Amino acid sequence: MGRKNATGNKTSTVDRYRQELGRQEKKVTAEHRREIKRLKSEQETVSYWKMFSKNLITRLLNIEYPLIQAPMSPLTTPELVASVSNAGDEIRHVRSLTNKLFGVNLFIPSIQYDILPHEIDSVRKELKKLIVDKRLKNFSIYIDSIPVKLTKDIFSEQIEIVLNEKVSVLSFTFGCLSDDIVNKCKQLGIKLIGTATTTKEAVFLKHR
């Protein structure tokens, strides 16, 4: 039993099945071609990125991709540092969470001064108020637990810790490291990354 097609000829059931099968095959083939094209595009993108990502920074720091999390002072937690390194608040804490490379960022103080306890309390109150006002209850700032040492030479203490712990990378900003610190870091194999905020700092970094 069959039916007439556009030309008036009868089309058998078998012919109709064959035609439908042909349409389905063409549909599958078209979808398959699109999928192959998409996968090829993704592979080319990955290949290009791998080729592009291999540069002086990746070789110098021995990392797979040139992705570096920006230092964010007390906003950065060891968990955040570890997650970025795998894809601080304390060097040992970060090392307990990841065996990947991470660095420490320090501000070079231009002025040494004493910080009074009531000034610290005042700042903490303002920060807490800001968190409440902006509904940042889950924001990763542990205000009350942020240690503040009331000494005139906090930076020297920080440098001593960096050297003792032999961190992989030390980045610094708002100033220049002394030749003594630079030499000690190089002797320990600590990579240095400086931020040039002035012409003087740019010249220093160029020659060091």
Automatic annotation (TrEMBL):
Region (Disordered): 1-25
Extent of Polar residues compositional bias: 1-12
Pfam families: NMO (PF03060)
Record-linked InterPro entries: Aldolase_TIM, NMO
Entry coiled-coil feature ranges: none
Compositionally biased intervals (Basic and acidic residues): 13-25
Domain of life: Eukaryota
Keyword Signal: no
Family: Belongs to the nitronate monooxygenase family. NMO class I subfamily.
The protein's name: Uncharacterized protein
